[in-house]
Amino acid sequence: MNARILHGEIITNRLDDNRAYDGVRTRRVLAFFIDYLIVGLLSIPFAILVLLLGLLTFGLGWALFGFLVPLVALTYVWFTLGGKEQATVGMKWMNIRLERLDGQPVDGIFALIHSILFWAANVILTPLVLLIMLFTDRKRALHDLLLGTVVIRTDR
Known about the structure:
Blueprint: E1 4-6, E2 9-11, H1 24-56, H2 65-80, H3 89-93, E3 96-100, H4 108-131, H5 142-147, E4 149-153
Antiparallel strand pairs: 1-2, 3-4
Helix pairs in contact: 1-2, 2-4
């Protein structure tokens, strides 16, 4: 066991250390805005390709515009949140990362499920998804509770 004593408490796991959750809500919101700015910027070159494809196909290719941003966002999540650092670029800048409570690493498929569940829950239960973070232990959102994940600080 890799236990340590912190302020008189025995901490056996970094996920049990309350300091790992200080400021996580604010950092998650800021990371969200950073990541969607990045997704928006990454979408521009693909939008130009779809525009040209639409011109070549007399407008048929423009139907791809409806799938463009979600595909770019899901690809971004797969390679960042599903990567070895388990964090998107925005999350890295905010010094947070996604952790599974079962100790397994977050892979690409799990990262996609996490992201899709977040957006699906927002469509159905808009305010509840984030309001739940005010009342749960470890400042977990609805999709975190359903998937058994937490977001922790990496600088603690």
